[in-house]
Amino acid sequence: MEASAKQFKKRNAILTCLRSTKAHPSAVMVHEMLKAEHPDISLATVYRNLAWFKNQGLVTSVATVRGIERFDANTEPHVHFICAQCDAVLDLPEMEIPKSLSTQAEQASGGQVLDCRLTFTGLCRNCAKVKETLNKSPAAGQRIFCPQASV
Q: pLDDT per residue over 95-107, tens digit each?
C-alpha cells in the first residue's frame, strides 16, 4: 500500500475513534483503543494526527487533566465537567454557555472573544457516591476506582 494511503487510513482511524467515544480521550487512550485493530500505528502518529486535527478545527483540546491533554471531536461550544478523583471528562449537554458571558468578557477586557470554554471540576456521580459510602474512612485521599473514567 502506498505511503499516503497508509497515512490516510491511520488518520481516518484516529478521527473515527475520537468521534465514536464520549470519553474525551488522551493520545495514549486513543492509541490503546486503536492498537488491536491497527497494530502498526505508533503513539507518535497519534500525537501528530491529533495536532493536525486541532489545526484543521476537526477536534478541540478540552482540558489538561493531571498534565495530560484530552481531546473532543465535538467542536461546538459546550460545557464540560472534570472529575477530580477519576479524571473522567463529561459533557453537560443540558447546560448552555450564555452569549451574555462572551459579551461581558468583551466589555470587561475591551477585546474580542474568539472562543469560550466552560469547565466545572468536582466529583462525578459515581465518585461522589463512593466518597459518601466511605464517609471519610482511612482510605480517604486515595484514588477511587470509578467505572465512569473509562466511558
A: 988 889 999 999 9
> Which residues have CB under 8 Å from 78's CB, separation 6+?
91, 92, 93, 95, 97
Q: What are phi and psi of 2, to 5 degrees?
A: -60, 150
Cell of 17: 475513534
Q: What is the pLDDT of residue 43?
A: 98
- Asked if 14 and 30 count as a contact pair (C-beta separation under 8 A), the reply is yes
Beta-strand ranges (E) seen in 11-117 are: 60-65, 68-72, 79-83, 89-91
Q: Quote the domain boundaries for residue 5.
A: 1-75
58 lies in the same domain as 82: no
Chain centre distance of CA 30 = 11
Number of residues that this document lists for the chain? 151
The pTM of this model reads: 0.79
Cα–Cα distance measured from residue 83 to residue 49, given in angstroms and rounded to the nearest whole number? 27
Residues 99 and 13: their CA atoms lie apart, in Å, by 35
